[in-house]
Amino acid sequence: MNIARMDVAVDSNAPHICSCPTPHPKWDECPTVVPGVGSGQEASLRTLPPRRAGDSEFVGQRFGSFQVLRELGRGGMGTVLLAEHVLIPKRVAVKVLHPHLARTPELAARLLAEARAMSLVQHENVATLYDLDTRDGLPYFVMEYLEGQSLADFARGPIEPALAVELLGQVCDALGAAHARGIVHRDLKPANVFLVSGPQGRHRVKLLDFGIAKRLVPQAGETPTRSGVIMGTPEFMAPEQCSGGDVDARTDLYAVGVLGHLLLTGEVPFSGASAAAVLVAHLQQAPRPAHEVRPGLAPALSAVLLRALAKRPEERFSSAAELRAALEDALSGSRAPARAPAITFTASISLPERSESREYVGEQMGPMGLFLRSTQPPPPLLSEVPLRLRLPGGELACTGQVVRHVTAEQARDWNMAPGFGVELRGTSASFQRTFTRMLAGVSEFRPEPLPPEDPQVTRVLSEFRQRLAGDRYAVLGVPRDADGDTIRAHAREARERLEPLLALPLPPLHRSFVQRALAKVTECLGVLGHPERRVEYDAELRNVRGVMRCLAAGLTVTALEASRRRYFQRHPQTEGHSVLHMASAEAFMSAGRIPEALTCYEAALRADPLHLEALKRWHALRSRMRGDAMEASSR
Ligand SMILES: Nc1ncnc2c1ncn2[C@@H]1O[C@H](COP(=O)(O)OP(=O)(O)OP(=O)(O)O)[C@@H](O)[C@H]1O
């Protein structure tokens, strides 16, 4: 199957497919059109520029300290080259923007954003970024060279469920790491999942191509990807992506559902003659359960994929880790996939068009969902129904929307009762609490105590609530390069502000928060107040200035080396990366290019924050540059 990526500007009257995020009134006005690709009015899958094996114009040329050996492949955005360091036998992959795209600043920015996303997501299942630069006006980045094959080449038909779950699990780990840093990949597909050899002859997944990744909170100076523009590969796009809506981590989980369906059945859930047909299917059609496509497959695995493929993001798994666990559970058959423990109750629905009200046995499904058992035809999908719930703790009236039908046949396969799923609608936080408590059998619902009247107390509580949401430096309210005396003084001051609150008649929730905040302050001081412990924490934060403070406070080289060994045990994938940057820094130093050398030392320290030599040189160079600047300003 030809699976290609597309960007469609949805806000143009006749959507066109091209590789840039700009809507074009006329197709041929787009500077990014790849020659030879059709430009009709119909949305159709875009084919990539042909790969010309080994004939890249870049062969033999230098990208920083790397010399190009051959071309590895081409994508919509750029050419990927195999290159080797000129001084040391280290091979890397260089991705350089296609020259004809360099005229469009948004596309150059997208390549940089891809590199930034890769560097933020440091994980063993994500290709590592080494460097980022521009050459003759063309932005490029240097990344880990992956020897292996893409999942598209590896899995040309259905693969064994155990292997599929192992690979999907690693994909979930990579996505989980990206999501933890606020990055949504948005283009998960077999071509972007690379397999290299891992320990004990197993496959190790390396997720590639964060080319259209989206930072949920764009950073200063970063161009956010435009909303209202559809980007992705049609077969793998979640409904909200197809309609140009908001995307979040659950958008990637849908793509894992598609990938899982493909690996287990050899087919994507939705295909069609045109991109538009595929998008409409994602929005409107129910996927066929995988075990119906490939008989013999465990229905429990199908059920997990169907949940990942739910049309509404809130019906999917809430995290990549949850999806991974559900896949593993379904494979081992140890328990039903991620269903809430069944507390049953009676629910009735009285529809205005019917004179009688109908009673159902209900059970909870997800935090705000119900499953109502029924062998009768259910109310139509997406219809609103008035509900009266007789919960263990009392009666509750509310409205729900019918979001799923489970037919008798599906119920048999999935080992559950037939019926329909209802999502409780338009509910406030206090309703949700009431529902949860009544479900658990708590009959009397008392509202939460009001916050204290005293504005001084409110101020301290809200300040510490913010502080506790940050790292240990934030908890103590000190900068990351604070010295030991400042840290101790701030910890003392924090205690002096919190402790008196305990003498006041605080509501229980606030009292326990103050106690927790005090315990946290003590814990933070225990780490930041001792250079041996602080240095380990600074290494995790890649806080080089903090590490320098620890050395200034008397941390010995032996203690630093011991911390460094532990750091590599925790992050085995980063060991050795600093060698490249150090070598580049030396090369820049000998050429007298001090700012570039400093950048390379900083890159070395990001990979290996406790590298003594790099720390020394970085420090010396910074002091020298500061000295030069001061001298220049006094002249
Ligand atoms: N780090 C790498 N190591 C080895 N080969 C790579 C690496 N990155 C990419 N490739 C190869 O280069 C090819 C082109 O990759 P690239 O990410 O530019 O494009 P794509 O994902 O195929 O297309 P698009 O960017 O349009 O989605 C890939 O198909 C892969 O074979």
Can you tell me about this structure?
It is a single chain. This protein is α+β, with helices and mostly antiparallel strands and 635 residues long. It folds into five domains: 3-144, 2-Layer Sandwich (Phosphorylase Kinase, domain 1), CATH 3.30.200; 149-331, Transferase(Phosphotransferase), domain 1 (Orthogonal Bundle); 344-439, Thrombin, subunit H (Beta Barrel); 455-529, Orthogonal Bundle (Helix Hairpins); 539-634, Serine Threonine Protein Phosphatase 5, Tetratricopeptide repeat (Alpha Horseshoe), CATH 1.25.40. 40% of the residues lie in helices and 18% in strands. The protein contains 21 helices and 20 strands. The strands form five sheets. It has a six-stranded antiparallel beta sheet with strand order 3-4-5-6-8-7, sandwiched between helices. Strands 15-16-17-20-19-18 form a six-stranded antiparallel β-barrel. A three-stranded antiparallel beta sheet has the order 2-1-14, with no helix packed on it. Helix 3 runs antiparallel to helix 9 and helix 14 packs antiparallel against helix 15 (508-528). The longest helix has 23 residues, at 612-634. The structure holds adenosine-5'-triphosphate (ATP). Pfam families: Pkinase. It is an enzyme of class 2 (transferase). Residues 66-331 form the Protein kinase domain. This is non-specific serine/threonine protein kinase. One of its GO terms (molecular function) is ATP binding.
